[in-house]
Amino acid sequence: MNKYYYEGKTKEQAEELALEELKVSKEDLIINSAEEKNNLLKKSVKIEVLNMNEIVAFIKDTINEIIKKMHAEANLEVRRRENSISITIFSDNNALLIGKNGKNISALQLLIRQMVNSNLKEPLSIVIDVGNYKEKRARNIEYLAKKLAREAYKTKTEITMDSMNSYERRIVHSALADDKYVYTESIGEEPNRKVVIKLKGE
Fold it and tell me: What is the CATH number of domain 53-131?
């Protein structure tokens, strides 16, 4: 994952030089910074760029290396949007990669985000999943949140859910954001923060 530098009379000219030399499309070029340089003889703009294709390759290589050290085998499916990269891992040992309550996959995602975004002025959204675990987990959490909300309303008592990471807590908050009878709050300290479902009007 390299940084490249190009200079032109304008930012657009420097960008064209980068596109031509790196042989990438505009969508694959990340402009990390642009610096205007002025002196008595000329004015120019120097840009720092990264190649999105190289970033994706770096992520894939890093994930594969980690999986290999865990003595597992996997295939990776990559989906890209403008400022986001989604990686789904299909492995012969999904349980190992996911870890208890998703701790391993969360740690892997955090590591990859830090490694990539430490090189960028504007961070990329990087999501890593194993066998669609997060998608299924999100559906289960949303179902549980709504079930507990009904229970809280019927029994007129607040309910504290089990500890969850920030991503899972956001799912609960979002699922109950428009509920007529309850609202949610997060309590406690990481890594043991929990969501409390409370009755409105109390």
Answer: 3.30.300.20
Q: Among 16, 23, 27, which residue's Cα sits nearest to residue 52?
A: 27
Q: What does pLDDT average to in each consecutive run of 10 residues of the chain (202 residues)?
A: 92 94 94 86 90 96 95 93 92 91 90 95 94 90 96 95 91 95 94 93 72
Buried b (16+ CB within 10 A) or exposed e, 160-188: ebeebeeebbebbeebbeebeebbbeeee
Give the pairing of strands 125-130 and 84-91.
parallel
pTM for this prediction: 0.78
Superfamily of domain 135-199, CATH level 4: R3H-like domain (3.30.1370.50)
CB atoms under 10 Å from CB of 122, counted, come to 9
Q: Residue 65: exposed, middle, or buried by beta-carbon count in 10 A (0-12, 13-18, 19+)?
A: exposed
Euclidean distance between CA atoms 45 and 7, whole angstroms: 6
H helix and E strand count, the chain: 6, 9
- Report the 10 Å Cβ neighbour count for 134: 21
Structure tokens that stand for 96 in this block = 């190992």
DSSP three-state, residue 72: coil
